[in-house]
């Protein structure tokens, strides 16, 4: 187990280094320098600005400097917003995004698992078909279209929810729903197929033969094993919710990190793009690693590669 | 009720008859097709897909309008007999643009899937067949690249390389092939020690022949399913990027960019968002159900 975690950590660090390096060099070759959009600057001022941001240094010095700063959790200043650093932007936006993300995650898991279990228990009957049609729709409708239609029909036309902004709990419902729809559909399908597989196992028949009720069998025996594949999906789920938040936060005017990221893309605010990309990558890689480790603990049948026998 | 004896007739049993195969023999793909046909949803998806492709081919020519000609006197017209899907803020015909967008979206999806297929099969095939150190090194490389978050990298590349069709496909395929290579490698690993491969080797076939004639055709089922499911995800990524303002340059029409243009006008001119959005969903839906249907039809474990 320790060996496995060590190995995974090493790969994670290499992936991270790769993305840090890639962002660094991408931003260097990106068209235009950070000050081009402003008025033509006198050469002295431009030289001063370059010196202030360390842009007069040779590239290897800048690269080294950047690596060291990232290790110190310092993502540098924003080129567009003079008074803000990237750290400020992350500290300000991330809690909001995390709240929204957590709500969407809960929604996706709760309803996804529920739909999947209902579909499996009523296999090939109408609840199954209904659940699977909902799931296929959820997968087919991209989150930003879902968000737009939810906003248009439920908020603007019917006035059931606030249209935008981030204030009360009511404000969080529509964005969380839009964000959760696609992952919920995936989870529903995953739960259904693994539940069907589990239900055909002999130990379920044994439980039935002992005279246990359907409810007890489902809750005590089937669900626990059927949920294992859902746990593996948590990594991609986090990624999906995270990237989904870029557009959802934009549509609903939520001041989260995703919305800031999109703004920085449109402004070509390179340091913010770099910093947020690296931050997101760390977040994702760590959560995927945690999920994989957790999986090893939850399912004792899994022998993690690199681990010894009997561990 | 009486049944007279002469209604019965002794047929006798012949050894040859017992051994005779009464059903015509089915090739693998015929068998797959029969199972695919039984899946109503998948069949519906296939029909939908064919319709969408036909419309993408003929759609832009059905009306007399051009997808890029502005007509500022006819801005934001609702759907009518003149403009079937209405017009947008520059007076361009939304019907023509929708099908022009279909071409681009489907082209992006198919191109991304084909490039993924090419690199993935080559990489995974070599890694799986060679095994040992080569396999170890190649798959480690893939693992590290796989760790890089897909959409973030795509966004980053689009920011750096600039918008456009080519850069978008490049950005999507730069890590997109890894999934395919893993699947191909797994298949090749399980197939390469089978007797028929050994027989082929004994007969003097070289590596590329064994790969092309034996290993890849036998791994075709999962490859095909992965491809069909790559296409909708590429179409989704295109729409997503266009939505972020990182899509194609105007006046090129893609569903994503049309939806993104139509969004601010949703309250007053909903058709500008409605049509591209509907077709994005329909296309992704069709590819997904066809992919699922194929997977079920190809997987012999699901045979009943």
Automatic annotation (TrEMBL), chain A:
The lineage of its organism: Bacteria, Bacillati, Bacillota, Bacilli, Bacillales. Residues 94-295 form the ABC transmembrane type-1 domain. Its main location: membrane. SUPFAM superfamilies: MetI-like (SSF161098). It is a multi-pass membrane protein. Gene3D superfamilies: MetI-like. This is ABC transporter permease. InterPro entries: BPD_transp_1_N, MetI-like, MetI-like_sf. Coiled coil: none annotated. It is found in: Cell membrane. Keywords: Cell membrane, Membrane, Transmembrane, Transmembrane helix, Transport. Belongs to the binding-protein-dependent transport system permease family. The chain crosses the membrane at residues 9-30, 104-121, 133-156, 168-188, 230-252, 272-298.
UniProtKB/TrEMBL annotation, chain B:
The keyword S-adenosyl-L-methionine does not apply. Signal peptide: none annotated. Residues 102-291 form the ABC transmembrane type-1 domain. It is found in: Cell membrane. The chain crosses the membrane at residues 41-62, 104-129, 141-161, 167-184, 219-246, 273-294. InterPro entries: BP-dependent_transpt_permease, MetI-like, MetI-like_sf, OppC_N. It is a multi-pass membrane protein. PROSITE patterns: ABC_TM1 (PS50928). Gene3D superfamilies: MetI-like. Its main location: membrane. It comes from the Bacteria. Coiled coil: none annotated. Keywords: Cell membrane, Membrane, Transmembrane, Transmembrane helix, Transport. Belongs to the binding-protein-dependent transport system permease family. This is ABC transporter permease. The lineage of its organism: Bacteria, Bacillati, Bacillota, Bacilli, Bacillales.
């Amino acid at each position: 187990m320790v060996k496995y975690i060590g190995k995974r950590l090493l790969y994670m660090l290499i992936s991270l280094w790769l993305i840090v390096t890639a962002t660094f060099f991408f931003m260097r070759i990106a068209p235009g320098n950070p000050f081009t959009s402003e008025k033509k600057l006198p050469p002295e001022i431009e030289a001063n600005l370059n010196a202030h941001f360390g842009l007069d240094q040779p590239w290897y010095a800048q690269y080294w400097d950047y690596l060291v700063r990232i290790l110190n959790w310092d993502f540098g200043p924003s080129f567009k917003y003079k008074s803000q650093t990237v750290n400020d932007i992350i500290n300000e936006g991330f809690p909001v995004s995390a709240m929204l993300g957590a709500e969407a995650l809960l929604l996706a898991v709760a309803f996804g698992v529920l739909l999947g279990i209902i579909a499996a228990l009523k296999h090939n009957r109408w609840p199954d078909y209904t659940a699977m049609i909902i799931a296929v729709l959820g997968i087919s409708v991209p989150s930003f279209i879902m968000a737009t239609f939810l906003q248009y029909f439920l908020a603007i036309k019917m006035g059931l929810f606030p249209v935008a902004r981030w204030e009360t709990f009511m404000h969080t419902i529509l964005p969380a729903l839009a964000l959760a729809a696609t992952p919920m559909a995936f989870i529903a399908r995953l739960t259904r197929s693994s539940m069907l597989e589990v239900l055909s196992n002999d130990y379920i028949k044994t439980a039935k033969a002992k005279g246990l009720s359907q409810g007890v069998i489902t809750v005590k025996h089937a669900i626990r094993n059927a949920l294992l594949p859902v746990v593996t999906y948590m990594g991609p789920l986090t990624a999906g919710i995270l990237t989904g938040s870029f557009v959802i936060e934009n549509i609903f005017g939520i001041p989260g990190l995703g919305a800031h990221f999109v703004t920085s893309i449109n402004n070509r605010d390179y340091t913010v793009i770099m910093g947020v990309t690296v931050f997101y990558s760390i977040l994702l890689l760590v959560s995927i690693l945690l999920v994989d480790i957790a999986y090893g603990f939850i399912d004792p049948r899994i022998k993690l590669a690199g681990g010894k026998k009997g561990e | 009720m009486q049944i007279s004896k002469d209604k019965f007739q002794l047929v006798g049993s012949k050894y040859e008859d017992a051994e005779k195969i009464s059903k015509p023999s089915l090739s693998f793909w015929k068998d797959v097709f029969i199972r695919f046909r039984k899946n109503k949803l998948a069949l519906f998806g296939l029909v939908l897909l064919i319709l969408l492709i036909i419309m993408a081919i003929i759609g832009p020519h059905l009306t007399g309008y051009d997808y890029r000609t502005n007509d500022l006197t006819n801005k934001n017209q609702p759907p009518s007999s003149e403009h079937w899907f209405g017009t947008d803020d520059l007076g361009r015909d939304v019907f023509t643009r929708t099908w022009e967008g279909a071409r681009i979206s489907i082209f992006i999806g198919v191109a991304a899937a084909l490039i993924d297929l090419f690199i993935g099969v080559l990489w995974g095939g070599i890694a799986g067949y060679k095994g040992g150190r080569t396999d170890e090194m190649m798959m480690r490389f893939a693992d590290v690249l796989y760790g890089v978050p897909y959409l973030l990298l795509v966004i980053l590349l689009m920011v750096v390389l600039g918008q456009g069709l080519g850069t978008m496909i490049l950005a999507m395929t730069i890590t997109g092939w890894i999934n395919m290579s893993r699947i191909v490698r797994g298949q090749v690993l399980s197939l390469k020690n089978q007797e028929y491969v050994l027989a082929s080797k004994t007969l003097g076939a070289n590596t590329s022949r064994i790969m092309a004639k034996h290993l890849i055709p036998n791994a075709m089922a999962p490859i095909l399913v992965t491809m069909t499911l790559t296409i909708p995800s590429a179409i989704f990524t295109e729409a997503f990027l266009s939505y972020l303002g990182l899509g194609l340059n105007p006046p090129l029409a893609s569903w994503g960019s049309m939806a993104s243009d139509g969004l601010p006008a949703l309250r007053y001119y909903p058709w500008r968002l409605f049509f591209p959005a509907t077709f994005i969903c329909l296309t992704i839906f069709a590819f997904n159900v066809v992919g699922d249907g194929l997977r079920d039809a190809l997987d012999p474990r699901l045979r009943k």
